[in-house]
Amino acid sequence: MVQSYLGATIFILLNLSFASSTSAFTSQQYSDALTKSILFFEGQRSGKLPANQRLKWRADSALHDGSSANVDLVGGYYDAGDNVKFGLPMAFTTTMLAWSIIEFGENMKSELGNAKEALRWSSDYLVKAATATPGTLYVQVGEPYSDHRCWERPEDMDTPRNVYKVSAQNPGSDVAAETAAALAAASIVFQDSDPSYSHKLLQTARNVFDLADKYRGSYSDSLGSVVCPFYCSYSGYNDELLWGAAWMHRASRDVSYLSYIQSNGHVMGSDDDDFSFSWDDKRAATKVVLAKGFFENKINDFQLYKQHSDNYICSLIPGSPNSQARYTPGGLFYKQGESNLQYVTTSSFLLLTYAKYLDSNGGHASCGSSMVTSETLVVQAKKQIDYILGDNPMKMSYMVGFGDKYPTRVHHRGSSVPSVHDHPGRISCDAGHQYFDSRSPNPNLLVGAIVGGPDGNDNYGDDRSNYSQSEPATYINAPFVGAVAFFSGH
């Protein structure tokens, strides 16, 4: 045991000395990246833009969303480079923005207000979606097939804005429980600054969680080709129910949610060691949230979640006995080819959050017979964040507008088509394809957007047609906000 611990300690010290001697960015540069990562969300806004909109090439869009069902569904975010409002990734984005602020808001300084505005833009929309019709949650606006056939800016959009919902008759426990998690997490953020809004968020979250739990089923089954293959719930809905309950308990301190977790955890994925965290799969992150409950309140039932969190964290640490993660030759965590940076930002966020929990409680992660300290987790997260920002074999930033070299042909309709301010005349569905096919840089800079990222050999082609590499998404940026806030404050 002494020998293992000594080996782990040496491993940690090597990591730390390497990090301190090769620090790629200053705290000011991390602060700049934080500013831009939040600004990106203004480029994704749907609805009536406010007077203080900073990305001026955008304008009002989709002002009649929901009218086909006589409800108000104006607002929210377009998820990526298209013009559909997909509820599952939007709710996940909201949860992660809220969690970023909860854990690292104190490091955001002057950007805290902007981060809260970005969060409120989506939490406002989710409240509308959850309260427009009793017993119903609206989970999508836009017909994805016609939208994806068109290449048009949101301000010109003329594809159908069909609305889709889940209910007792058409259950969607996954999207409803994620929405409950989002509203509960957001309620924590606004608890002090806007208590009445916070109360409204939490009450809405309770109702949505009840809908998710009482009428169980996957929204992929209820809505079929409307959400598949775009955002199918591949992991099922049990992970979202446990995740939702964890956030409901954290926001409300209601013991009924604690009982729910204790009674249902073992059948909802708590016994799985899953090594992924995304808009679809919440198992690893749920264990980190619940591990905090073990650390702070010494809830013995939650010790299991600490052990599983250790297993997840150790899977990411190269050289640890439990290491399972694949890395590119340049050192980037590589999960899969399509939009890989989403897994980099989520795992980096969990590394830093778990490091914070360990620090606060004098603990360490157990990797087999070795022990890994919080500093090692921070070092590993820093390498990933630095890679995204430009410390990589391509010597380019994967955040638009950060550094001297970054993606210029981003797979994004509004960014790639001339703005309505420069080209007031309508650009139709088909006419937009000339801009999609162009080799010219996008005319509108989607500042702060993090694209899908390089391939498994660290190569990136800056090709608008290669959406798996060049498309940004809100759920890539949202966890990055918290991660880069951490480094901007250190």
Q: Topology of this protein?
A:
Layout: H1 2-21, H2 27-43, E1 85-86, H3 87-104, H4 112-131, E2 136-141, H5 144-149, E3 163-167, H6 173-189, H7 195-214, H8 219-223, H9 238-252, H10 255-264, H11 283-297, H12 303-316, H13 341-360, E4 365-367, E5 370-372, H14 374-389, H15 413-416, H16 433-437, H17 467-470, H18 474-488
Helix pairs in contact: 1-14, 2-18, 3-4, 3-6, 3-18, 4-6, 4-7, 6-7, 6-9, 7-9, 9-10, 9-11, 11-12, 11-13, 13-14, 13-18
Question: What does the model show?
Answer:
Residues 30-484 form the Glycoside hydrolase family domain. One of its GO terms (molecular function) is cellulase activity. The active site is at 411, 462, 471. It holds the Pfam family Glyco_hydro_9. It catalyses: Endohydrolysis of (1->4)-beta-D-glucosidic linkages in cellulose, lichenin and cereal beta-D-glucans. By secondary structure, the protein is mainly alpha-helical. It has one domain: Glycosyltransferase (Alpha/alpha barrel), CATH 1.50.10. Helix content is 49%, strand content 4%. The chain is built from 18 helices and five strands. The strands form two sheets. A three-stranded antiparallel beta sheet has the order 1-2-3. A hairpin with a 2-residue loop joins β4 (365-367) and β5. α1 (2-21) runs parallel beside α14 (374-389). The chain is globular, with a radius of gyration of 22 Å. It starts with a helix and ends with a helix. The model is unreliable at 1-21 (pLDDT under 50).
